[in-house]
């Protein structure tokens, strides 16, 4: 079997999700660093692999690529303990993956990008402020759920947790104070030992 190739940007939470799952399932992979800050995902060669010009990108085989971090998580977790077989539980995992991409990541990750990766908090101050309320709202949804659950689905560690962990555990790098969310803090510690 051909070794998977992961086109990756080390600081990216979306890329981190894939590295974390690949490591936890013990699947070997080759990591190819793509510096998005230098436009390395905008070259004709890379755009031929992923017309969207983003990472992560998983090369499964020659001319066979998969993009979008949560789609990659689903693909890699098929047949493993990280994705339930039960249709309802599987749908709950998908529910949290969609929540992560639409209600969480756009606010938590963008703030972190502007502050910690670009290092331009003053330049993006107004945009960062606009991310605060919806970012904290997403964290509150998570904290409320985790007050009565150890993990997001079926009381066990799944790709729902991996997806949400990626940017939540570094939310402070985007200026979000996680001390307000004790259930999230406990969950982060559980994920770290899973």
Regions with pLDDT < 50 over 5+ consecutive residues?
A: none
Question: Average pLDDT, to the nearest integer?
Answer: 97
Helix/strand/pairing class, anyone? alpha+beta
User: How many β-strands, per DSSP?
Assistant: 4
| Strand residues, percent | 5-15%
Rg from alpha-carbon coordinates? 17 Å
List SSEs in N-to-C order.
Answer: EHEHEEHHHHH
The largest sheet is:
4 strands, mixed
Work out the count of structural domains.
2
Helix content: 40-55%
Write down the overall geometry: globular
CATH class descriptor of the largest domain:
Mainly Alpha
Report how far the terminal alpha carbons are from each other: 28 Å
CATH topology of the largest domain: Glutathione S-transferase Yfyf (Class Pi), Chain A, domain 2
Comma- or semicolon-separated keywords:
Glutaredoxin, 10% strand, globular, 194 residues, Glutathione S-transferase Yfyf (Class Pi), Chain A, domain 2, 2 domains, 4-stranded mixed sheet, alpha+beta
What is the structure about, briefly put?
The protein has seven helices and four strands; from the N terminus they run E-H-E-H-E-E-H-H-H-H-H.
């Amino acid at each position: 079997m051909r070794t998977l190739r992961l086109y990756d940007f080390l600081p990216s939470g979306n890329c981190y999700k894939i590295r974390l799952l690949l490591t936890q399932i013990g699947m070997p992979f080759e990591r190819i660093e793509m510096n998005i800050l230098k436009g390395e995902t905008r070259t004709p060669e890379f755009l031929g692999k992923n017309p969207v010009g983003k990472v992560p990108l998983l090369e499964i085989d020659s001319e066979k690529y998969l993009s979008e971090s949560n789609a990659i998580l689903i693909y890699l977790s098929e047949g493993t303990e990280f994705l339930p077989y039960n249709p309802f539980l599987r749908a709950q995992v998908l529910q949290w993956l969609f929540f992560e991409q639409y209600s969480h990541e756009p606010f938590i990750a963008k703030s972190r990008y502007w502050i910690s990766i670009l290092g331009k908090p003053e330049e993006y101050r107004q945009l960062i402020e606009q991310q605060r309320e919806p970012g904290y709202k997403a964290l509150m949804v998570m904290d409320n759920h985790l007050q009565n659950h150890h993990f997001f689905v079926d009381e066990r560690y799944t790709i729902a947790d991996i997806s949400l962990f990626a940017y939540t555990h570094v939310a402070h790098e985007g200026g979000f104070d996680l001390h307000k969310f004790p259930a999230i803090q406990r969950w982060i510690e559980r994920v770290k030992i899973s």
